[in-house]
Amino acid sequence: MKGLIGKKVGMTQIFDDSGEAVPVTLIEAGPCYVTQIRRPKRDRYSAIQLGFGEVSPRRLSGGQLGHIKRNNVPPLRYLREFRVKEVSDIQEGDKLTVEVFAVGDQVDIVGTSKGKGFAGAVKRYGFRGGPKTHGQSDRLRAPGSHGATTTPGRVFKGSRGPGHMGSVRVTSQNLRVELVDLERNLLGVRGSVPGPRGGLVMIKEVRKQ
After folding, report:
1. Cα–Cα dist 10/3, whole Å
2. Is domain 1-29+98-114+167-209 annotated with CATH 3.50.50.60?
3. CATH 3.30.160.810 domain locations along the chain
4. Per CATH, which fold does 31-96 belong to?
5. Global pTM?
6. Which candidate, 187, 1, 7, places its Cα nearest to that of 94?
7. pLDDT at 195 over 90
8. Is the model's pLDDT at 93 over the cut of 90?
């Protein structure tokens, strides 16, 4: 199983063998511990639960500590499940580091996008807005009329318009691993990764080849 939990460090660039600059996002990935294994016979699906981020035991509840301590692993702040087709030879309590990935691997990275607060329809969905002339005074960035006529006489639920923007689960697919630093637990992937610096991310095996 190839999967880790990590924190986004930020973006930088590295140079490949030909001297070309490659934009990469650095992720502090692992070390992670296997805290639980889900099996089809008992749980009706296969998954491996990983823990990341050592913390003081006082930061966790009694139930969380009991769940973690049964596998003799340190107190961990974050727990996430990774779905797998088959549970391999991984055992509960095992420690996973960035060495599970190699340069050239393709990965999917799941994170929470940056929150933008309340945004208008022009920023949120790219609406055109109103005309800039012909007596326009306050309709430049307004969405305009987007409801129906007499029947049904209302705006359908789910229609695009102003509202809360960002802070949602986003997956960046098919990112190439460009750097693996085992000493500093760093993983460098080509391109951007969702979320702010310090945001929690999940690094998974690529789903779409």
Report:
1. 20
2. no
3. 31-96
4. Double Stranded RNA Binding Domain (3.30.160)
5. 0.84
6. 1
7. yes
8. no
